TrEMBL record:
Source species of the chain: Zostera marina
Top-level lineage group: Eukaryota
Name of the protein described by the UniProt record: Retinol dehydrogenase
PANTHER family: SHORT-CHAIN DEHYDROGENASE TIC 32, CHLOROPLASTIC-LIKE (PTHR48476:SF1)
Coiled coil regions, renumbered to chain: none
Pfam families hit by this protein: adh_short
Length: 324
């Protein structure tokens, strides 16, 4: 088990890794040269380091990004240190159902396999705003965009797993913040209710949704007998662009909590562990912190809420503009 003690000391858990482990370290012996991966938000922060390390292990990695220029810069940096890296960039705005659908169509048209989907992109603590489809922005970006993307790519992943015999893996970047959603968990009765909006609780809600998505999707895949696992991770506390809406507060907070923070290579470790580590073969519906399994909140373990969120999300992605 992990906790504050192991976080601060870097003490390793039963996986053999801990909070001080880096993405390179946890994938050291892994050959990913037969893997094709998509990393959303792979042009910066934890995602960019994830792309770099997956490519270092031989994977063909597609950066799914709303900022193609930043992705090209990230790709150039990776190639500067690893000329064999196989990295591409494709445009994706997760806050737009149209963009998600276009991305999926474009990816499928490439006729590539897909072994690994890392749902990494995210926004945090933004002021209230509706997406172009009329859904609160943190829920739309962090959960709904990834929900739709995953569904659109699922047949491709199933086919790849069947054809190659290689287990497909889906990794959702959740957060410890999933334990602080609205009091009712997911605000089904007012997802767009600005009068009751809290940027902090809406972020927690979206990260809870990431975990509930894992729960229901893994159940469905298991029932189908699909050779695909789905897990979620909390990467740790890492100073990235994610803090843009709370930069001043976070800098002050960091002064008092500096022992709890990780650097980016450490921040990408748990994602890369869940994505590639051989010890997780067949492991699904789990949540990892510092590369070790951890229990999620009671809401995140609620099967009824997971199913309700699935239906709610399907309804939302079906309609292009809904508000309440
Ligand atoms: N950093 C932490 O302490 C921490 C803690 C817990 C969980 N997490 C989670 O880890 C993940 C990665 O965060 P990070 O810290 O690496 O932050 P980051 O550097 O800001 O990376 C997030 C990425 O998501 C992209 N993104 C945001 N909105 C998007 C959209 N609508 N469509 C496509 N891409 C979009 C961003 O693109 P732009 O550059 O264009 O904005 C950026 O590349 C997030 O899901 C976050 O919730 C982070």
């Amino acid at each position: 088990m992990v906790g504050i003690f192991t976080l601060v000391t870097g003490l390793r858990g039963s996986s053999g890794f801990g909070s001080a482990s880096t993405a390179e370290e946890v994938t050291k012996a892994v050959d990913a040269s037969n893997i094709t991966a998509i990393v959303t938000g792979g042009a910066s922060g934890i995602g960019a380091e994830t792309v770099r390390v997956l490519a270092l292990r031989g994977a063909h990695v597609i950066i799914a990004t709303r900022n193609l220029k930043a992705a090209e810069e990230a790709k150039k940096m990776i190639l500067d240190s690893n000329s064999n890296a196989h990295v591409d960039a494709m445009e994706l705005d997760l806050s737009s159902f149209k963009s998600v659908r276009t991305f999926a169509d474009n990816f499928i048209a490439k006729n590539l396999p897909l072994n690994l989907l890392i749902n990494n992109a995210g926004v945090m603590f933004c002021p209230f705003r509706l997406s172009e489809d009329g859904v609160e922005m943190q829920f739309a970006t962090n959960h709904l965009g990834h929900f739709l993307l995953t569904n659109l790519l699922l047949d491709k992943m199933k086919m790849t797993a069947k054809d190659t015999g290689i287990e497909g893996r889906i990794v959702n970047l959740s957060s410890i913040a999933h334990v602080h959603p609205y009091p009712e968990g997911i605000r089904f009765d007012g997802i767009n209710d600005e009068s009751r909006y809290s940027s902090r609780l809406a972020y927690g809600q979206s990260k809870l949704a990431n975990n509930l998505h894992v729960k229901e999707l893994s159940r469905r895949l298991k029932n189908e007998g699909a050779n695909i696992t789905v897990n979620s991770v909390h990467p740790g506390l890492i100073m990235t662009n994610l803090m843009r809406h709370s930069a001043f507060f976070m800098r002050i907070f960091q002064i008092f909590t500096f022992l709890f923070w990780k650097n980016v290579p450490q921040g990408a470790a748990t994602t890369c562990y869940a994505a590639l580590h051989p010890s997780l073969k067949g492991v699904s519906n789990k949540y990892f912190v510092d590369c070790n399994e951890m229990k999620t909140s009671a809401f995140a373990r609620d099967q009824t809420m997971a199913e309700k969120l699935w239906d709610f999300s399907e309804d939302l992605v079906r309609s292009s503009a809904k508000s309440n």
